[in-house]
Specification:
CATH class of the largest domain in chain A: Mainly Beta
Order of helices and strands of chain A: HEEEEEEEEHHHEHHEEH
CATH architecture of the largest domain in chain A: Sandwich
Largest interface: A-B, 52 and 52 residues
Strand order of the largest sheet of chain A: 1-8-3-6
Oligomer: homodimer
Largest sheet of chain A: 4 strands, antiparallel
Structural class of chain A: alpha+beta
CATH superfamily of the largest domain in chain A: Jelly Rolls
Shape of chain A: globular
Strand content of chain A: 15-25%
Helix content of chain A: 40-55%
Number of strands of chain A: 11
CATH topology of the largest domain in chain A: Jelly Rolls
Number of helices of chain A: 7
Radius of gyration of chain A: 19 Å
Chain lengths: 221, 221
DNA sequence: CGCGTCATTGATGTGCATCAAGTGGTGTGG
DNA sequence: CCACACCACTTGATGCACATCAATGACGCG
């Protein structure tokens, strides 16, 4: 998201990033119950955020890659309500939230930027609700792949090739499916020459077919 | 949510509410594609927000009652991405967003308040994702009823009695179920003396039973 | 090289959707 | 004021998509 700032403002922004943190693959950036310190911007690496309930339910709420912001859930109650786990070795910028608020008051562009980030997250989650509430397995996986590849492409990667950073189980948890269903659906796509799949490696051979699948609600209206 | 403000700040806050709007039952407060003007605080009445896709899918993303804020989805792209529909005659306060940002810069308590509202919405949606992604029909409906009655209770209504403002179909859309399933699940709860249901009227006879149902994931861990 | 983790694939089961009737409450016009 | 129409709701019969259970296969790491 581009923000237009003066040089003066930019130098203020530098002050925002208090520290950097390195997170090993499999390690937690923060977890449910942790005191909220600030927001995190992913510099390198790949994360998942997930809710874990007392009764053992586990829901992946999102996957985050370079440039994306984590930690917004902690603002309401000064405590995080989910876990952030690195799926590969990663680096994040730590931005203490009181500093963000302070600077936001001085730099309107930053203020608006923060609001947009939060609103974007809300809209993203609306999309996930639609997916979880009304899509079938194939539609969910197709939407997931398209979203992933689109975000990777925006970062300079291929539009058609990707290496999944997460397991089938994590994909399933995000999509509200069991890992076997995710695997079977991958195989089905492969049979239909829509994708090539070899473990974590995925090559999309027919993007339009995926798009058609996403919008195949047996549309009546 | 309590905000602590000085008298001076309070008088500034008055300036926030530009206008009031009355919405007839069934009418739209805003809809997908509308230019984002500001946030809305529900004064009286009851709303649903829902996504409608081109291919005819329809997902209710939330129900809003007095004191709750609508319109956050419009901030990112200056356009709303969902519809807000009044389920009964309603009144809302209109708060132009540029005024909110302006005042936020002067009144840190307001600034923080806005951040908390947005964060709270993100956390709420996490909960819905968990519900849609991993709960069975009975668990979903139990969670829904508990949430509704809890919010009503916080507004001075009964802890055990409520009148639903929405149809079975709208409940189903929110919970990712078909209306028949919602109806059957109500009947099942009634058979088990957990609730009394007569059309829109619901009386909860055993709150703990509902709570037990919500946490009955066949917990292994 | 062997063990643990992740992935694939098959057989079977089940929860919810779908299809279909029928009921009750509400608003409207004769 | 009643008859009719409409809509929301309920309930039953059937089907299907995905879950579950189970076995095997492919990596990757110590």
């Amino acid at each position: 998201m581009p923000v237009h700032l003066s040089d003066d403002d930019l130098s203020k922004l530098d002050a925002l990033v208090a520290t950097q943190r390195r997170i090993k693959r499999g390690a937690l950036l923060y977890s449910n119950g942790d005191v909220f310190a600030g927001l995190y911007a992913v510099r390198t690496g790949f994360f998942k955020t997930c809710l874990v309930t007392e009764d053992g339910r586990d829901q992946v709420t999102g996957f985050q890659m370079a440039g994306e912001i984590m930690g917004l859930d902690g603002i309401v109650n000064d405590h995080h309500t989910c876990d952030a786990v690195a799926l590969e070795d990663a680096e994040v910028c730590v931005m203490p939230f009181d500093r963000i608020e302070e600077l936001s008051r001085e730099v309107p562009a930053l203020q608006n930027h923060v609001h947009r980030i939060m609103s974007r997250e809300i809209v993203r989650e609306h999309g996930v609700m639609l997916l979880l509430g009304s899509m079938r397995a194939e539609e969910r996986l197709a939407a997931f792949l398209l979203n992933l590849v689109q975000r990777l492409h925006a970062r300079g990667f291929s539009q058609s090739e990707l290496v999944l950073r997460m397991t089938r189980e994590e994909i399933g948890s995000y999509l509200g499916l069991k890992l076997e269903t995710v695997s079977r659906t991958f195989s089905k796509f492969a049979d239909e020459d829509i994708v090539e799949v070899k473990q974590r490696y995925v090559r999309i051979r027919d993007t339009d077919a995926l798009r058609r699948i996403v919008n195949s609600s047996t549309a009546e209206a």
